[in-house]
Amino acid sequence: MIPFDVLAVKSLNDDAATASDTAGVTLGLQVLFNATSAETVTQVQQLCQAGLEAIKKEQGTVNWLCGQIPGTQTFVILDSFATEEEYASLIS
Question: Which residue from 31, 83, 84, 87 has the highest number of Cβ atoms inside 10 Å of its Cβ?
């Protein structure tokens, strides 16, 4: 596993005593991408944090995480869904 700094996170399974991080998850999406400059790194960091409010409103998103690999311009977004329909609505 590659370590990364978490910039923003959403989880419907916040109660660790009653649910796991994968409870209700049937499909996931992993996106790795690179910022093109130091200025873009700052913009992506801000976008991840600002975008969390919109992600929280997506009822079909079970878990969402945006992070950055330390010392790089590489970012990761992890997104999981309860059904294929919820995933399909994201990519359509």
Answer: 87
